[in-house]
């Protein structure tokens, strides 16, 4: 089962990818995310249902009809909020890892001295 944190990360990653590459198909999006096509479809549908994305059709030489996934103003705002949360979490993880590395370096130095 998806945790809220994992779902937020998935939504953030999808919003980031589609903001810069709105022409990505769900199959290409799944490949870029490293998840199944079904999970990607579920995530995109959730973002569409929440009004964070909208679909626009366009002609594509490879396919007769394809879609652009465009972030709505609410999607842009949500992406910014999720980016802030993601960044704060990563900074906290970095600080914990830095402290662990310092502790291991001190232990190693004490053993070698």
From TrEMBL:
InterPro entries given in the database record: MarR_EPS, WH-like_DNA-bd_sf, WH_DNA-bd_sf
Superkingdom field: Bacteria
Protein name: EPS-associated MarR family transcriptional regulator
Natural source organism: Rhodoferax saidenbachensis
């Amino acid at each position: 089962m998806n945790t809220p944190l994992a779902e937020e990360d998935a939504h953030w990653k999808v919003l980031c990818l589609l903001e810069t590459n709105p022409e990505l198909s769900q199959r290409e999006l799944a490949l870029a995310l490293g998840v199944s096509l079904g999970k990607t479809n579920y995530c995109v549908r959730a973002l569409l249902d929440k009004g964070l994305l909208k679909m626009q059709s366009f002609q594509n030489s490879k396919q007769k009809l394809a879609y652009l996934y465009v972030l709505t103003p609410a999607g842009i705002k949500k992406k910014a909020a999720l980016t802030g949360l993601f960044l704060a979490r990563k900074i906290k993880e970095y600080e914990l890892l830095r402290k662990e590395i310092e502790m291991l370096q001190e232990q190693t130095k004490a053993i070698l001295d």
